[in-house]
Design a protein that fits this description.
It contains 13 helices and 13 strands. The protein folds into three domains: about 55 residues, no CATH class; about 160 residues, Immunoglobulin-like; about 180 residues, no CATH class. Belongs to the MCTP family.
Length: about 475
Amino acid sequence: MGILDIEVWGKDSKKHEERLGTCKVDISALPLKQANCLELPLESCLGTLRMLVTLTPCAGVSISDLCVCPLADPSERKQIAQRFCLQNSLKNMKDVGILQVKVLKAVDLLAADFSGKSDPFCLLELGNDRLQTHTIYKNLNPEWNKVFTFPIKDIHDVLEVTVFDEDGDKPPDFLGKVAIPLLSIRDGQTNCYVLKNKDLEQAFKGVIYLEMDLIYNPIKASIRTFTPREKRFAEDSRKLSKKILSRDVDRVKRLTMTVWNTIQFLKSCFQWESTLRSTVAFVVFLVTVWNFELYMIPLALSLLFVYNFIRPARGKVGSIQDSQESTDVDEEEDEDDKMGALEKGHKGESEKKGLIERIYMVQDVVSTVQNVLEEIASFGERIKNTFNWTVPFLSFLACLILAVATITLYFIPLRYIILIWGINKFTKKLRNPYAIDNDELLDFLSRVPSDVQKVQYAELKPGSGQSPLRKKRSAL
């Protein structure tokens, strides 16, 4: 409760940054649990900054030793569990739950120093909360034994644990990383996680031992799913990459082929290429159209969820392996390109400089294309993964919404539903002038992982440092 210092910065496409102005806000003078709209004039430049500040008491982050573990005390654990019980589902909606992480130790880390040792420390990130351990010097098997506590604002957040090597005044060296979705946490168990590379696509070197406890309110978590996701403020901008661009093109191509094959299947029914198939399709068409009611649309989608739930999970595993192998192929091609470039040496140095300059000129355009392909591919994959029960919590929530929609459409005429929806949309800004407009369906889909994220979040088993493709090549 002090002075909040604010800086406004501008950045152009060449990553040139310039501070435009500053202002201050006295937090202690603002009332609690109330939206405060402030107009703040910027110092040292023209212009004002409009802010909406709301002070809400909540549990903060904390660091402690193993001997002072909050959830280890039965009375304190019971008190926290009571705070997030179903009876308190409508109180303090932004306080979804609490996460406790015990960072125990790491084993067989990469030697980053010339002495054959490293000075490792561990950084934990959950949303915009960042905490880190102390540094253990000259050790490849550090034991931190620290307990970190995070408040949960979104149950679909991902805990990122990164191990770095402290390097004095220089930026720390990367030693490995692991990403753990909160919904995949196994409470109270000590788990060994294989460290991955920066892209979270391949095994790196070493493992880390973590023990996690998660307590949350499922009602609050479900409601939070249909609100805009919090943006990461300290997130690296995606760089232009031949590997990523090629991967995104392949992802969009796979989605396009799926749609194309579906269209061709429907055309074949009309062309009577298979008498049995066309006869069945014709009968289904007549029966469906003759008996069609609007409530059958969500009912049919619910049946699709049920079908994917009871079928064998072989297809899900296969999709992860296909994504992993495509990533491996891209990395192998990238390494082959590097080897070819090394063999050429300095032969085409001037041509290379000219090429780099031309690439830099169109970098923004190509980067935009890459991001658009990423968005298109991710959108299609998230819809597929919703029906595939990739995240059971989200698929079950979708089934519940579809069941409610089916019952509602069965008993209530469509005109009344549209009327209620329109009144809500028109009066939303009048009821809450500071409300942020959002699309609940897109907010829901933003929580579903894409195929690339499924590979990044997949837990590797110890000893699986090589990809299947590399194992085949090494065997040959």
